[in-house]
Design a protein that fits this description.
The chain is α/β, with parallel strands linked by helices. 54% of the residues lie in helices and 17% in strands. It contains 5 helices and 5 strands. The protein has helices at residues 13-25, 36-45, 62-72, 87-95, 108-141; strands at 5-9, 29-33, 50-54, 78-82, 100-103. A 5-stranded parallel sheet has the order 2-1-3-4-5, with helices on both faces. α4 links the parallel β4 (78-82) and β5 (100-103). The chain is globular.
Length: 143
């Protein structure tokens, strides 16, 4: 998992400072965004193994941010965090494409496990895309 590229999105600065530092000490490469629009901008420029996204943010909430992130990159692995979990929101998050929906306060080891799963899934999807692209090229070339 060392070297995993993670985007942490939360409007609570104290939370992101602490969590990102804990993640960095465990070998992750972490970027931080304070809101949905900033997350969208960063995800345009950087390829992330996982996005850890807060559900409750002012302006664009986590569900809307999730939908927009996945519209741009359907293979993006998003872990939604919330301090205000409801079954309804959890179902909405999963139906909207979240890989996971977990409650705050999050245990760092549990989060790291979810990020490792996200990275593996992203790598499998990338390999699948490459295999399909190569097969298509070989088919067109008549090989």
């Amino acid at each position: 998992m060392n070297g995993s590229k993670v985007l942490l999105v939360d409007d609570e600065r104290e939370f992101t400072d602490l969590l990102s530092e804990r993640m960095r000490t465990r070998g992750l490469d972490v970027d931080v965004a304070a809101n949905g629009p900033a997350a969208l901008e960063m995800a345009e420029r950087v390829i992330y193994d996982a996005v850890v996204l807060d559900l409750a943010m002012p302006g664009m909430d986590g569900i809307e941010t999730l939908k927009r992130l996945l519209k741009r990159n359907p293979d993006l692995q998003v872990i939604l965090l919330t301090g205000h979990a409801t079954l309804e929101k959890g179902i909405e998050a999963i139906k909207s494409g979240a890989m996971e929906f977990i409650e705050k306060p999050v245990k760092i080891e549990a989060l790291l496990e979810k990020i490792a799963v996200a990275r593996e899934k992203k790598e499998r999807l990338s390999e699948q895309y490459i295999d399909e692209t190569l097969s298509e090229i070989m088919r067109r070339m008549g090989w």
